[in-house]
């Protein structure tokens, strides 16, 4: 059974703050990539294509974690909590809105092999 956790963390910058928010988010990458259980952690920005015209926040973290415990430990790190407090929740922060969602690659009724 797969225990991986896939996270998409989207950020909507305040007007004129996209570059600054992207740079702050990039600074979170090196330490997070050192964490046990971090498989992928990369901040991306939305680009246009006639083949991908969906709606999205302009900045998205694409994350893969080995398991739920690793993801939850990451969320509780001081650096991550400070980021959300300073740049998302604070009145003078850089983000107008954010959306963090996690996913699994397992079907609902997956019949995992018994080891």
Topology:
Blueprint: E1 5-13, H1 18-26, H2 29-33, E2 38-45, E3 59-65, H3 68-75, H4 78-89, E4 95-103
Antiparallel strand pairs: 1-3, 1-4, 2-3
Describe it.
The chain is built from four helices and four strands. The N and C termini lie close together (10 Å). The protein has one domain: 2-Layer Sandwich (Alpha-Beta Plaits). The radius of gyration is 16 Å and the shape is globular. By secondary structure, it is an alpha+beta fold. It has a four-stranded antiparallel sheet. The model has no long low-confidence stretch (mean pLDDT 94).
What does the largest sheet look like? 4 strands, antiparallel
Could you tell me the number of beta strands?
A: 4
* Low-pLDDT stretches: none
CATH architecture assignment: 2-Layer Sandwich
Overall, the morphology is globular
Q: Approximately how much beta-strand content do the residues carry?
A: 25-35%
Strands in their spatial order, largest beta sheet:
2-3-1-4
């Amino acid at each position: 059974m797969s225990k991986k956790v896939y996270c998409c963390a989207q950020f909507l910058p305040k007007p004129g703050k996209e570059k600054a928010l992207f740079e702050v988010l990039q600074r979170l990458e090196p330490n997070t990539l050192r964490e046990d259980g971090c498989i992928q952690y990369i901040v991306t920005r939305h680009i246009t294509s006639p083949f991908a015209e969906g709606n999205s926040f302009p900045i998205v973290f694409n994350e893969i974690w080995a398991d739920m415990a690793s993801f939850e430990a990451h969320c509780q790190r001081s650096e991550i909590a400070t980021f959300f407090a300073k740049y998302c929740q604070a009145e003078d922060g850089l983000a107008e809105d954010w959306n963090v969602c996690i996913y699994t690659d397992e079907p609902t009724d997956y019949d995992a092999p018994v080891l």
